[in-house]
Amino acid sequence: MELEVKKLSYTFEDGTEALKDVSFSIDKGETIAVMGPNGAGKSTLLWVLMKALKGYSGSINICGIDIEKITGDAFYRTLNIVFQNPENQIFCDTVEDEICFALDNLGVNPGIASEKLKEIAGVLGISDLLKKEPQHLSFGQKKRVALASVLIIKPLILLLDEPSSNLDFLNKKKLITAVNEFQGSKIIVTQDIHFALSVAKRIIYMENGIICYDGAFDNPGLKLKCPDLDDEIIDIRQKISIIK
Q1: Which of 7, 143, 155, 201 is deepest in the core (most CB within 10 A)?
Q2: Model confidence at 242, in pLDDT bands (50, 70, 90)?
Q3: Can you give the pTM of this predicted structure?
Q4: Which DSSP letter does residue 53 get?
Q5: Which of 120, 168, 175 is nearest to 148 (CA)?
Q6: What is the spatial distance between Cα 103 and Cα 111, in angstroms, rounded to a whole number?
Q7: Which residues are paired to 157 by β-bridges?
Q8: Are 153 and 77 in contact, with CB atoms under 8 Å apart?
Q9: pLDDT digits (tens, 9 = 90+) for 130-172
């Protein structure tokens, strides 16, 4: 297994238990959609995995190595995140500089970096934005730029927090293509059922910091443990079938 989380718990300073004995593992190249209501602990899970929140209990191992022992550039090439709000992630003067920032810091040859930039910009449909200032972009465009800046370094494990929010249908399709083409493992927090079904076969459903279900979308256990979600999935699949 590539990532193994065991009995992970986290409590905020105000006493709120955000995560309670969360355990799961993912294999190399696997994609997991993490779903659940607001306040379920989904985003907190990503922040703990990124070591942005300290003081958790339990263990997090990547390829058998304690996550706390992976530091510096090695950590961000192993595990990286695209935030829900891209404005928390973008800081360079141009889109091109933003996307290539990490490659420059890693000492990647400029010629190779240029080819990688061209490739990822084409996939996400932002080739015409490369010379623009990020602050002048729409929210959806900023989200794609933030995604490109992480995808370009090809981390071992990619974390995405509500990546499809505020994207129109065409740009969501581009996002789905980019996510599916990424060969690494992915943990995707989303409330978008259509997006989840398009990029993942496995779902972790959380409520009140606890994993209520971990398995395939079409497993009978989902209907038993998460009947409302199962009904929503059936409904969206019927709508897709009618469209086709």
Answers
A1: 143
A2: low
A3: 0.92
A4: S
A5: 120
A6: 11
A7: 79, 185
A8: yes
A9: 999 999 999 889 999 999 999 999 999 999 999 998 888 888 8
Using the structure block, give the residue that is written with the tokens 């059922």. Answer: 193
Radius of gyration of the chain (CA): 18
- In which region does residue 7 sit, left (phi positive, over 0), alpha (psi from -120 to 50) or beta (all else)? left
Tokens matching residue 139: 């929210």
What is the rounded distance in angstroms from the CA atom of residue 158 to the CA atom of residue 103?
16
Whose CA is closest to 224, among 213, 216, 234? 213
CB 213 within 8 A of CB 222: yes
CB-based contact 28:182 (threshold 8 Å): no
For residue 46, what are the contacts with CB-CB under 8 A and spacing of at least 6? 81, 159, 161, 187, 189
Contact residues for 109 (Cβ-Cβ < 8 A; gap 6+): none
Output DSSP code: residue 136: G
2 CB contacts (<8 Å, ≥6 apart)? 26, 27, 28, 30, 62, 63, 156, 157, 185
Name which of 236, 221, 242, 156 is nearest 190 in CA terms.
236
- What's the rounded Cα separation, in Å, for the pair 126 and 82? 17
